[in-house]
């Protein structure tokens, strides 16, 4: 077991880090990670991006504007977003923010 104290990490610059990646026999890898967004940071810098795995993102701290194709929502600490594989999306930090994410499927 690995324990990560994510709430204690400082937000200084945009940071996206994979914490763990596991690949149960016969399946695709499941990855989890941490992202730090200083106020105003956007991923991607312009436009929208997608990936071929489902994403679950949990906002630990802060406030993010998340765009999923044509829909934009504001997420605050305690909110989670589920993004389907290949769905176009982007995130922009409205204030310093910390996010725990999981990619799977």
Summarize this entry quickly:
This protein is mainly β. The chain has strands spanning 15-22, 30-37, 42-43, 54-61, 63-68, 71-76, 80-83, 89-93, 97-104.
Would you write up a description of this structure?
The protein is globular. The protein has no helices and nine strands. With 105 residues, the protein is mostly beta strands. It has a single domain, classed as Jelly Rolls. It has a five-stranded antiparallel sheet with strand order 1-2-9-4-7, with no helix packed on it. A four-stranded antiparallel sheet has the order 3-8-5-6, with no helix packed on it. The model has no long low-confidence stretch (mean pLDDT 93).
Break the fold down into its secondary structure elements and pairings.
Layout: E1 15-22, E2 30-37, E3 42-43, E4 54-61, E5 63-68, E6 71-76, E7 80-83, E8 89-93, E9 97-104
Antiparallel strand pairs: 1-2, 2-9, 3-8, 4-7, 4-9, 5-6, 5-8
Q: Which regions are unreliable across 5 or more consecutive residues at pLDDT < 50?
A: none
Q: Could you tell me the number of beta strands?
A: 9
Largest sheet: 5 strands, antiparallel
Strand order across the largest sheet: 1-2-9-4-7
Q: From the coordinates shown, what is the CATH architecture?
A: Sandwich
At the fourth CATH level, what is the homologous superfamily?
Jelly Rolls
Q: Any idea what the shape is?
A: globular
Helix/strand-derived category reads mainly beta
Could you state the order of secondary-structure elements as H and E? EEEEEEEEE
Count of separate structural domains: 1
- Computed CA radius of gyration, to the nearest angstrom: 14 Å
Would you state the CATH class? Answer: Mainly Beta
Beta-strand level of the residues, as a percent range? over 45%
What helical percentage do the residues reach?
under 10%
CATH topology: Jelly Rolls
Count of helical segments?
Answer: 0
Mean pLDDT over all positions: 93
Give the terminus-to-terminus CA distance. 22 Å
